[in-house]
Design goal:
Strand 2 and strand 3 form a beta hairpin. It is globular, with a radius of gyration of 13 Å. The chain has one domain. With 90 residues, it is of the alpha+beta class. The chain has three helices and five strands. Helices cover 42% and strands 28% of the residues. The longest helix is centred in the last third of the chain and has 17 residues.
Length: 90
């Protein structure tokens, strides 16, 4: 069974900036800034192009770490974003 794909929460918008992305909740305004290279991961999710392999390969290059370390960073980022209410799982 394929794990569910995380997607941005329904009440969230974002602005891509030179060095990251700013998340905006309709109720609260700007709520978070995601720095490079994690903004690249956010872009994959937001654009609907997220796959585990694509995310791992991209983050491995951006972080200049082995794929296993990149996967740990991805899991940590996704957990943080879920806890903050920035993601929903489809």
């Amino acid at each position: 069974m394929t794990p569910p794909i995380p997607r941005p929460a329904a009440d969230l918008s974002w602005i891509v900036e030179t060095r990251g992305a700013t998340l905006i909740q309709r109720r609260h305004g700007a709520v978070a800034s995601i720095p490079y290279p994690y903004a690249g991961l956010w872009a994959l999710l937001a654009d609907g192009r997220y796959t585990r392999d694509r995310a791992r390969d991209m983050m491995s290059v951006l972080l200049q770490t082995p794929p296993q370390e990149a996967e740990k960073e991805i899991r940590r980022a996704l957990a943080t974003w879920r806890k903050a209410g920035f993601l929903q799982v489809e």
